[in-house]
């Protein structure tokens, strides 16, 4: 069978060997999905690649890794195919190639975003307002962040439609969605499918540290998003404007969210520094690390901004925090942030195949 790219061809070679061996049958969701097939089209490989959580247990259990002539490295082969699929589905494609491969590009975008917010804060300071609204008016924030939120969502929707067509996705039923949400919420596939953890940072030793770090980041991000959403409802629905007290819905959601996001990101960086880069996407290590650092910066600066309320540090911290949030939003369809959307789509498609 002919494949569109050399990375897909290499993924096919390794998957076919794994499909014949079947030693890893009890591992993560990739292997039951793989063993249902006799041959693999490009869409099948794309689905398997995005279903893979890179726990690396299969690599350390494999008898065909180097120096064997088969030279299997399934986590890296699927990671390369996965990253390539994100670039292929992204719209427009050019930013994806830049952000997926270059931590320098991510850092430069962050610096420019912060500089832009600094400039806006110093030149468009409102005549009145409380808290950070004394630095940047509500209308200015809406004018900046509404397009920065809506346009990336539109771009990622286009990418997901391309993905769904390639992997042969059909009409989604409620049961498919519930199975996928449950799997994502518990990070089941980061336990290696056997509940004892994965081998991401400790080689042949099992650990749940990466699973817990991902859960902290995911729930922290969702709490922060819920905090912003609740503040929007209070502002427009009830006329209650920021700043909010600690005993208020935005703060009760946002403070724990910021803590979880910061701690989870710090743990992910620590684990990534311990892990073998040869078992991930070739050339993407710097960009992935830069993305996690951006998540950490978003959480930490949000907490510092709240702590600095009423001090002279608000202006500087607001620019840094909003700059990091701005780049996080704008880079969503093109950075590692996209993996959450595609992995969720892969889990839904896997549920479709299993449940019918």
From TrEMBL:
Domain of life: Bacteria
SUPFAM superfamilies hit by this protein: 4Fe-4S ferredoxins, Respiratory nitrate reductase 1 gamma chain
Record InterPro entries: Citrate_utilization_prot_B, NarG-like_sf
Keywords: Membrane, Transmembrane, Transmembrane helix
Transmembrane parts of this sequence: 103-121, 141-164, 216-240, 252-271, 283-307, 313-334
The protein's name: Citrate/tricarballylate utilization protein
Lineage: Bacteria, Pseudomonadati, Pseudomonadota, Alphaproteobacteria, Rhodobacterales
């Amino acid at each position: 069978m002919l494949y569109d790219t050399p990375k897909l061809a290499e993924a096919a070679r390794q998957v076919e060997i794994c499909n014949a061996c079947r030693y890893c049958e009890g591992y993560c969701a990739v292997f039951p999905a793989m063993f249902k097939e006799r041959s693999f089209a490009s869409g099948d490989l794309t689905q398997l690649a995005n279903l893979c959580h890179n726990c690396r247990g299969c690599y350390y259990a494999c008898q065909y890794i180097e120096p064997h002539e088969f030279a299997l490295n399934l986590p890296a082969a699927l990671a390369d195919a996965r990253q390539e699929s994100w670039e292929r589905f992204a719209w427009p494609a050019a930013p994806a190639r830049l952000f997926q491969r270059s931590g320098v590009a991510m850092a430069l975008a962050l610096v420019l975003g912060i500089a832009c917010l600094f400039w806006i804060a110093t030149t468009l300071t409102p005549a009145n307002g409380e808290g950070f609204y004394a630095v940047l008016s509500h209308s200015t924030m809406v004018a900046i962040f509404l397009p920065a939120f809506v346009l990336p969502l539109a771009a990622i929707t286009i990418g997901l439609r391309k993905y769904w067509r390639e992997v042969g996705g059909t009409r989604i039923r409620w049961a498919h969605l519930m199975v996928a949400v449950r799997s994502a919420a518990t990070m089941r596939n980061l336990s290696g499918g056997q509940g004892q953890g994965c081998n991401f940072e400790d080689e042949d030793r099992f650990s749940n540290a990466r699973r817990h770090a991902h859960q902290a980041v995911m729930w922290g991000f969702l709490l922060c998003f819920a905090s912003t959403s609740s503040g929007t409802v209070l502002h427009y629905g009830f006329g209650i404007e920021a700043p909010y007290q600690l005993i208020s819905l935005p703060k009760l959601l946002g403070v724990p969210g910021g803590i979880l996001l910061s701690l989870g990101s710090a743990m992910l960086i620590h684990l990534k520094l311990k892990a073998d880069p040869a078992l991930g996407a070739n050339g993407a290590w710097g960009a992935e690390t830069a993305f996690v650092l951006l998540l950490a910066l978003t959480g930490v600066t949000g907490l510092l901004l709240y702590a600095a309320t009423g001090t002279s540090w608000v202006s500087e911290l607001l620019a840094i925090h909003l700059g990091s949030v701005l780049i996080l939003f704008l880079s969503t369809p093109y950075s590692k942030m996209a993996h959450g959307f595609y992995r969720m789509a892969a889990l839904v498609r896997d549920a479709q195949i299993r449940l019918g």
